Amino acid sequence: MAILVLKRCYIIMNLLFVLTFVLLNSAHCFNPKRLNASAVAGSSDWSLAGATFYGSPTGYGADDGACGYKNAVAQAPFSSMVSAGGPSLYKSGRGCGACYQVKCTSNQACSTNPVTVVITDECQECVKESVHFDLSGTAFSAMAVPGQDSQLRDAGVLQILYRKVECNYNGETVVFQVDKDSNAYYFAALATYVNGGGEIGLVELKQALDSDTWLPMSHSWGAVWKLVVTSPLRAPLSLRLTYLDSGETLVASDVIPAGWQPSAKYKSNNETINAAGWADAGVTWYGEPEGAGSTGGACGYGVAVANPPLYAMIAAGGPSLFNNGKGCGTCYQILCSGNPACSGRPITVTITDECPGGPCASEPVHFDLSGKAMGALAKPGQANNLRTAGAIRVSYRRAACLYKGTNIVFHVDAGANPFYMAFVVEYENGEGDLASVEIQPAGGGFMPMQEMRSAVWKLNSNGALKGPFNVRLTSGESRKVVVAQAVIPANWKPDQMYRSIVNF
């Protein structure tokens, strides 16, 4: 576990960080004297974060990190350029392997040049900022002007800029480390050096002599995935990785050989990537044949699912899509071609509900569509035939949400009061999901809100909160930030909707 350094300075530096953040957002610009030319050209890609370091000043953090990479973090291609991530970066282990560029401009010892780091550990204490990197000593020092790394390390908590980037391990292919406890009935492995998006949303296993069946593995911890079977596994084993964000798949054929051993490492030499980004999923439907599924969906949108701009084109997501509520608001394209009634044309749906059981739980990816969305997959006049076909196979991919002419809406919870603020956030363009929500009452600073396993965010306060309220939203993956100024008025009421003038 990462441990923050210079704790005595933490509170003071954190207050300076928040003040700087507010000033930057209110000015809507950066000081060009503090950024190099490449940063100025793409300044909109950069977001603010906090940064500390842990471990040795010239080290790699820790070799018992929460992702499971062990001492590989000190060796090429990681080469100690690693970081522990706060909750929004670590993502309960799903963020392991993600790559980010980071740079500092807020201290005289900063070089302002970006360096690339990989998330290899968790920083459970990094919760005071919405995004926080607890860097290895090597990575932290790499942000400094040559010869001033010691001064930078002594600066305490830094305000830095960061952005997500593609991982590039210079010709390396994926390496699978088999867990030491694996056997013929229990197989667990960790994937390292995953190029591209880095983060893995799903791992599936296929046995020898079985050309069609991919068995979904469960996320165990960190970057480790596991599978329990009732019959002995037949090697060689192939592994299919699905990227968390793009939905692209990478197949490592026969990567685990016959006679494999626990604790051994196996390098993939035969990788196939589905560059189109389409992956396989199951589909069913629920509710009325022409309906919106349910008005009591787990995301909390209520009757809004039947109205514009959602128009009942929604879905309940299985566990991998609903993602404990973090998938609420995400958009997907779905294409059906395996049934005579299928149109072969993609539709776009939004995740607004949870499907926790049945085929939704037994398949790695499953959409339980509204009746209207299911019918939209069909040829004209064939909607009923498709609905009576039972569970069907489709292709899907993540898509940008686009609610034309609609800005973000905040629906205040019916139980909200001056000491408890809660609301549903609706109609976010782009990625659809949110990494963080912060609220600023009249005369106060921004305070982080807590996600309630849905699209509802809440804040309990010891003192009465007074409006008008500003709300700051950070998008799920790109970490873009928008601020809805005075969106909830001073005379707000529970169970009311307040429309902003902003969107991503």
Automatic annotation (TrEMBL):
The record's comment on protein family reads: Belongs to the expansin family.
The record lists the organism as: Brassica carinata (Ethiopian mustard)
Q: Tell me where in or outside the cell this protein is found.
A: Secreted
Q: Which UniProt keywords apply?
A: Secreted
Name of the protein: Uncharacterized protein
Q: Which InterPro entries match?
A: Expan_Lol_pI (IPR007118), Expansin/allergen_DPBB_dom (IPR007112), Expansin_CBD (IPR007117), Expansin_CBD_sf (IPR036749), LolPI (IPR005795), RlpA-like_DPBB (IPR009009), RlpA-like_sf (IPR036908)
- Positions of the Expansin-like CBD domain: 185-268, 419-500
What does the record list as GO biological process?
A: anatomical structure morphogenesis
The chain positions of domain Expansin-like EG45 read 64-172, 296-406
| Gene Ontology terms: cellular component | extracellular region
Q: Where would you find the membrane-spanning parts of this chain?
A: none
Tell me the domain of life.
Answer: Eukaryota
